[in-house]
Amino acid sequence: MTDKSIILGRFRPLDQILAFDVFDDGFNGWMEIMPNFCNGPDFEQSPSILSKDQWMPMMLSTATYRYPGSHGSMSGQYSLKVSTRPIANRYEEMPAPGSMAHGIKRISFVRPGVQYLQFETWFAYTAEQDKCDNTGELPGLHENSIRAFGFGFDLQHGGNRYHCGTRYLNAVNGNLVKKWQFAYPWAKDDREWAYDTDGDWCRMGVDPYWFGKRFPDGRHQAFLDVPDGRQELCYNETDCKINWQYFRLLLDVKNWQYVEMQCQDRTFDLGEHPIHASVPYHRIDGLMNPLCWVENDADRRSFLYLDSVVVSQQ
Q1: Quick one: pLDDT band at residue 71, thresholds 50, 70, 90?
Q2: CATH entry, 4-313, from 3.30.559.70, 3.10.20.540, 2.60.120.260, 1.20.1300.10
Q3: CA dihedral (106, 112, 115, 121) positive or negative
Q4: What are the tens digits of pLDDT across the range 251-275?
Q5: Nearest to residue 100, comparing CAs of 300, 294, 305?
Q6: Mean pLDDT of all residues belonging to the chain
Q7: Candidate ranges 38-47, 57-66, 180-189, 234-243; pick with highest mean pLDDT
Q8: Which residue from 135, 143, 187, 222 has the highest number of Cβ atoms inside 10 Å of its Cβ?
Q9: Nearest to 269 by CA among 230, 231, 310, 228
Q10: Nearest 10 degrees: Cα torsion 57, 58, 64, 66
Q11: What is the 3-state secondary structure (H, E, C) of 50-76?
Q12: CA–CA separation, 1 vs 154, rounded Å?
């Protein structure tokens, strides 16, 4: 097994490391988002327009493809695989059940006076190489079948709930966009946040990955563009080749501001933009859950792989 000290050298952690997850060792507490089975009479889901019961479970994967066999991970055999089902709605519609997948690790704040919180990972992404589309150049590449993927935190601290993170908006209705955005709600109220639905359990700012209206030009009421945020990531010549890439997100959780994010060799200044404070939920003060997600832009499965993750604070 690879020496974990060598793997840690690929990261830039803050003073205190809270989690150092190498998925050759197992799931390390990461799991899929599940419905809240808390309603009567038979432990039913919370009422909502968006059901999570079609979301795929996490996998420990050797990244297997039909031509090369098992790709393995960056550091060994297994990575954490987050995968969708082969279904998608148009971008401006509510996400189709199963078109998104979501991984989360459930931990909590452990130290008073912390100012900075950071998420780091080495990741790879690809679409399923299931068939050629028979149109355009490289009809079997499917790069534009991946709508978006992202990384961030679900936090509750000091009497507020905070959903913060950045996503790579890769494609909108088949058109490549390739830009970074950060989570910040701009809907007018809870009803608009829930696609003009009355009585949904969700509150504005919570769960921005699938709530918030979307528009054909790529806008989303849950996200704002990162300044100068367009970036060409490494997507190889076929869907059975993956390249491991570095990501880092730094937050100020004392002043509740975005600080910066890094992907590969580019660091983006997030301008101390405020992190939106949402209405708190009962019983979860101190929540500090790192998370990731991936979403389809076509009726084809999308895969996000995490080789390893470091969560640190200072």
Answers
A1: very high
A2: 2.60.120.260
A3: negative
A4: 999 999 999 999 999 999 999 999 9
A5: 294
A6: 93
A7: 180-189
A8: 222
A9: 228
A10: 20
A11: CCCCCCCCCEEECCEECCCEECCCCCC
A12: 32
**Count of CA atoms in the C-beta half-sphere (13 A) of 303:** 26
In this prediction, residue 2 carries a pLDDT of: 63
Token duo for residue 220? 């989303």
**What is the three-state SS of 218-271?**
CCECCEEEEEEEECCCCCCCCCCCCCCEEEEEEEECCCCEEEEEEECCEEEECC
Over residues 82-97, mean pLDDT: 96
Structural contact between residues 73 and 79, judged by C-beta atoms closer than 8 angstroms: yes
Among left, alpha and beta (phi > 0; psi -120 to 50; other), residue 255 is alpha
State the number of CA atoms in the 13 A half-sphere of 25 facing the CB: 12
Residue range 14-24: average pLDDT?
96
List Cα–Cα distances, 176 to 67, 132, 146, 162, 218, in angstroms: 26, 18, 9, 30, 10
β partners of residue 26: none
User: How far apart, in whole angstroms, are the C-alpha atoms of residue 38 and residue 143?
Assistant: 39
Q: Phi and psi (nearest 5°) for 19?
A: -145, 130
Cα–Cα distance, 111 to 88 (Å, whole number): 42
Average pLDDT over residues 292-305: 97
Assigned token pair, 261:
């994010």
| Domain residue ranges of the chain, discontinuous segments joined by + | 4-313
Instruction: Tell me what the mean pLDDT of segment 236-245 comes to.
Output: 89
